[in-house]
Prior knowledge:
Elements: H1 7-27, E1 34-35, E2 39-47, E3 50-61, E4 66-75, E5 87-95, E6 101-109, E7 119-124, E8 129-134, E9 137-142, H2 152-162, E10 169-174, E11 177-182, E12 184-193, E13 196-205, E14 212-219, E15 225-233, E16 236-248, E17 252-253, H3 287-294
Antiparallel strand pairs: 1-17, 2-3, 2-16, 3-4, 4-5, 5-6, 6-7, 7-8, 8-9, 10-11, 12-13, 13-14, 14-15, 15-16
Amino acid sequence: xxxxxxxxxxxxxxxxxxxxxxxxxxxxxxxxxxxxxxxxxxxxxxxxxxxxxxxxxxxxxxxxxxxxxxxxxxxxxxxxxxxxxxxxxxxxxxxxxxxxxxxxxxxxxxxxxxxxxxxxxxxxxxxxxxxxxxxxxxxxxxxxxxxxxxxxxxxxxxxxxxxxxxxxxxxxxxxxxxxxxxxxxxxxxxxxxxxxxxxxxxxxxxxxxxxxxxxxxxxxxxxxxxxxxxxxxxxxxxxxxxxxxxxxxxxxxxxxxxxxxxxxxxxxxxxxxxxxxxxxxxxxxxxxxxxxxxxxxxxxxxxxxxxxxx
Length: 310
């Protein structure tokens, strides 16, 4: 007897596979997502009511499809007598074709002579490794998924806000380990600043049960660039950054990003894992401003010290 043909079954399998692939493409964001546009913003830094610094934040792109976010904070007012050198921070990263952020390099210069709080991270997406340096210690961190650093997190949050998908938690490489931070969208608010009046969305960053909280105001009309950050303790403002000027440019779409090598799955023994409980930091992207407001925890002449939050 002639064996029955299996071609119709194979055809059904092929058709099902194609339909499944198409549906998966739609579900995982086949439509191009909007990326943060280059911008420059300048902020006044106040601590306990006194102006202690001026912070400049810039996001720019280069011809290789890589992006650089940087901050520089100059001490002002009485802070000049304790710390005269600027505090500088820079993150270099890229977007994958599916819109994920991959850190490339991070540097933080605390502006002091001994560089006690200096930090560096070098990401290797071929070896799936991040070489991290903090407080004069070197640590190798194994990477199993796309991750960035504390400064690149601002760009990632801006991207998610632009596309209406702010995540409740984010993981980053920071201070020789992988950390998890939690955020909550509180709603909209009209905010008056030296840079003008903005319609903003307000975001809360707080550890459960903590008396400390950070409020972030981001302006949709400027691609969700931050216009104000306020650190509270026991509901009282401690350190405040408020925009003096914001200059943003054209929109960027993820389709404009040059393809990069994808990351294979890996789950080796000895993997460095992030904390499950979100930690409470100073708002991550402006660490340079926090360090200037802190001045120096070791200085007897500390005029505006705040506890280490990250």
